[in-house]
Amino acid sequence: MQNNLKSLFWNAVFVLVLVSIGGLVYLSGKRIDYNWNWERVVPYIASNAAASITAPEDGNIVLTKNNHLALENLSGEVIVDLSGYDTIQVYQGDLIFEGDTLAYQEEWRIGPILEGVIVTIKISLWSLMIALALGLIIGLMRISSNPALKKLSIVYIEIIRGTPLLVQIFIVYFFIGTVLDLERFTAGVIALSVFTAAYVAEIVRSGIQSIPKGQMEAARSLGMSYPKAMIYVILPQAFKQTLPPLAGQFINLIKDSSLVSVISITDLTKAGREVVSGSFAPFEVWFTVAALYLILTSGLSWAIQTLEKKLAASD
């Protein structure tokens, strides 16, 4: 009974804190005398606006055998059947020129904010996969007994971690991208991958070194070569150890992807900046952008936690 009361008390404290934060945001909005217009943001996420259907060439509006209006070109061929559209703007016998509006059709279309979300997901997924592979290689080089490989990995890690990501994006795009004729998206993926791989390499190194040396010795005594022992014995155990820090690094990768907007990649951040200038609702747009980033990072966090539980259950 006492434990239930204690749990209820702390849950009430949790709710009170959340309500207090919400109240502070509300009072801040009142204090700056800002009129919230959330409805302005909705069309930039998704809209059911009517799209105009235009004439592909000159012709006349005729009535077909099925009593449907249609556009007939000068050769007498029906080129546009208007029976399936919501709002028809022409009448039988009208003379139509190329580019004239024939009808309007309502259809759901994603707005620039959702398009930015899609670009962010694409660039984050590509960067995540490349960074994981590259970081694994650099991490193995980091613990190698070969002095050249070890020193090269140390230099790579120190240079990448010691310079800002923004600078690296500029170098990859304006220098390497110019030499190799890279597209913006490719340059952004490379910069994010190279940056994240340096941190992944250190996570992999620490994970491998956390496994007792007896594991490698036991695998070698069974006749396994060093690569086989590493792949089948050490790395699976190290992967479980490194999953939580890798999750944090991949969440940072999603947030760091916002910096690619500086090279004119229309990701979620750049889309938000463009929508602000057109909607005149800066706070609503940036709160929406923040919420979408939170959804992406929370989804990744949930997926990794689920994987972590499954791996723990399999032990």
Write the layout of secondary structure elements.
Elements: H1 2-31, H2 42-45, E1 46-47, E2 50-54, E3 59-63, E4 69-73, E5 78-81, E6 87-88, E7 95-96, E8 101-106, E9 109-110, H3 112-142, H4 147-161, H5 165-180, H6 184-209, H7 213-221, H8 226-256, H9 268-279, H10 282-313
Antiparallel strand pairs: 1-9, 2-8, 3-4, 3-7, 4-5, 6-8
Helix pairs in contact: 3-4, 3-6, 3-9, 4-6, 5-6, 6-8, 7-8, 8-10, 9-10
Which features would summarize this protein structure in a list?
MetI-like fold, 2 domains, 9 strands, OB fold (Dihydrolipoamide Acetyltransferase, E2P), alpha+beta, three-stranded antiparallel sheet, 315 residues, single chain
